[in-house]
Design a protein that fits this description.
By secondary structure, the chain is an alpha/beta fold. The chain contains 12 helices and 9 strands. 47% of the residues lie in helices and 14% in strands. α5 packs across α6 and α6 crosses α7. The longest helix has 15 residues. It is globular and about 65 Å long.
C-alpha cells in the first residue's frame, strides 16, 4: 500500500502523474474543518513536499463545497476543536488548526486551490494560503468571522491581505460580506475564472503547466517569492544568488538549454 492510498479521516488523496489531488472530505458538514481533517491534511502535505513524484498539489472539496470553515454545531455544543474554556481553546488553536498555515507556508511544492464551491471563514483562509486559486461561478468567498462574533483564528488576517491587498482584506473582514463567481475573480480572490463544467480540466491544465517546468527551479522560485514579500532587498539578492548557483548546475538547466537549441520541449527530471 502506498502512502497516498491509505485511509485518511475527512480527506481523500490521489496522485495522478505529478499532480497530488487532496480533497477535503467532510461533506455532511460542507467540508468544515475537523480535528481529524487537520491531522490528515498536515500529515499528507508534509510527506508530499519531500516526494519527488509530486510537483503540484491541488486542494479541493468533496461535493459542492470547498470548505465551510468551522463546524457550527461543534461551536454551539463546545465539542471537538471548540471544547474547553478560553486558555484551553487558545492552546487548541495553536496546536490544532494553526498547524495548517504553518505547514502550507513551509511547502516548497506549489499549491493550487480548486475552489469548487463556498469557501467560508477558515475555508476562505485555506484558499488564501494556497499559491494560486481557480474557480467558477460556483465559487464563493467570505471572511465571515465577525458575523459569528469571532476573529480569524487561523491566520486569515495574514494571508487574505497578501492576496487582495490591505484595503480589500479589511473590507471583507469588517463586513463579513460573501463574494461569488466573477465578482470574486475581479476582486482578486481567484487567479483564474473558468466555466463550471471546465473546472477540473482547466485545473489539470494549470497544474500540468507548472509540473512541466523544472521542479527544482519551480520550488526555489516559490521560496524566493515568499521570502521577497517580507525581507529586504539584500537578503533576497543573497538568497537568489545561492539558488541561482544551485539551479545553474542542475541537469534540468542543461536539458532546457539543449531543448531550446534543438527547438523542442524539454523533459525535466528534477535533477
Amino acid at each position: 500500500m502506498s502512502f497516498y492510498s491509505q485511509i485518511y479521516p475527512h480527506l481523500k488523496v490521489n496522485l495522478d502523474k505529478h499532480q497530488l489531488w487532496v480533497t477535503l472530505d467532510n461533506a455532511e458538514q460542507s467540508n468544515a474543518i475537523s480535528l481529524e481533517m487537520i491531522s490528515s491534511l498536515t500529515q499528507v502535505l508534509k510527506y508530499a513536499d519531500f516526494d519527488s513524484d509530486v510537483r503540484v498539489i491541488i486542494i479541493t472539496g468533496e461535493g459542492t463545497s470547498f470548505c465551510a470553515g468551522g463546524d457550527i454545531k461543534a461551536m454551539e455544543h463546545k465539542t471537538g476543536m471548540f471544547h474547553g474554556e478560553s486558555n484551553e481553546l487558545r492552546m487548541r488553536y495553536m496546536h490544532g488548526i494553526q498547524q495548517i498555515p504553518i505547514v502550507i507556508e513551509s511547502l516548497s511544492t506549489p499549491v493550487i486551490a480548486m475552489v469548487n464551491g463556498p469557501a467560508i471563514g477558515a475555508g476562505c483562509d485555506l484558499a488564501m494560503m494556497c499559491d494560486l486559486r481557480i474557480g467558477s461561478a460556483k465559487a464563493k468567498f467570505g471572511e465571515t468571522f465577525v458575523k459569528l462574533g469571532l476573529v480569524p483564528g487561523d491566520g486569515g488576517s495574514y494571508f487574505l491581505q497578501r492576496v487582495v491587498g490591505f484595503s480589500k482584506a479589511m473590507q471583507m473582514s469588517l463586513t463579513g460580506d460573501i463574494l461569488a463567481g466573477e465578482e470574486a475573480y475581479k476582486f482578486g480572490l481567484m487567479n483564474y475564472f473558468v466555466g463550471e463544467s471546465d473546472l477540473r480540466a482547466e485545473t489539470q491544465k494549470l497544474a500540468d503547466k507548472i509540473a512541466n517546468n523544472a521542479p527544482v527551479a519551480v520550488q526555489m522560485t516559490k521560496k524566493t517569492m515568499k521570502m521577497a514579500y517580507s525581507n529586504d532587498l539584500q537578503t533576497i539578492l543573497d538568497v537568489a544568488a545561492a539558488y541561482q548557483g544551485i539551479t545553474q548546475r542542475t541537469e534540468d538547466h542543461f536539458t532546457a538549454l539543449a531543448a531550446m537549441r534543438e527547438k523542442k520541449a524539454p523533459n525535466f527530471t528534477g535533477k
